[in-house]
Amino acid sequence: MSLTRDWLEGSLRALVPAERLPFKGDSLGLSGMTLNPLIAPQGGSAPIQWRVEGRPGNLSLVLEEHGQVLEMPLRDVEEASFVYFDTDMQAHGQWPPALGVQDALPAATALHLRFADGSQRLWAAPVVGIRNPVPEVFEFDQD
Question: Are strands 77-85 and 68-74 parallel, antiparallel or unpaired?
Fold first, then answer.
């Protein structure tokens, strides 16, 4: 599962705000744009969707990029849910949060895992870039 964790964290660290595909997430999944695609060709942004699927004890983490799907089993995991953190490190079960004005991207996103033996882990990834789209302040000449 180390490779699955690394892929998830790399994808989430490279999230970028995009007006045409705003980031959104709940406890079972998220969607947005990343600069670090796993399946799609490297060198540009790619739309992604991460989601938890299955039933307790037989869960998978599923990545979808450009219509291609990669399913990664989460061995011995009874529960898995996404959590979103704002700049004050307050946890939210969805993004954007239900109340208040927030950045387009959370400050960090995590996958909380509870295993069959009762242990828990948090796979967390801070967003390393800007969290809001850059407004266009000029127009290019169309000559």
Answer: unpaired
The dihedrals phi and psi of 55, each to the nearest 5 degrees, come to -125, 160
Provide the token pair at 46: 């790619």
Q: Tell me the C-alpha distance between 78 and 57, whole Å.
A: 5
Half-sphere exposure of 66 (CA within 13 A, CB side): 10
Token digits of residue 125: 């990834």
Domain residue spans of the chain: 2-126
Per-residue pLDDT of the chain (143 residues; tens, 9 = 90+): 899 999 999 999 999 999 889 999 999 999 999 999 998 777 788 999 999 999 998 999 999 998 899 999 999 999 999 999 999 999 999 999 987 778 999 999 999 999 999 999 999 999 999 999 887 665 656 65
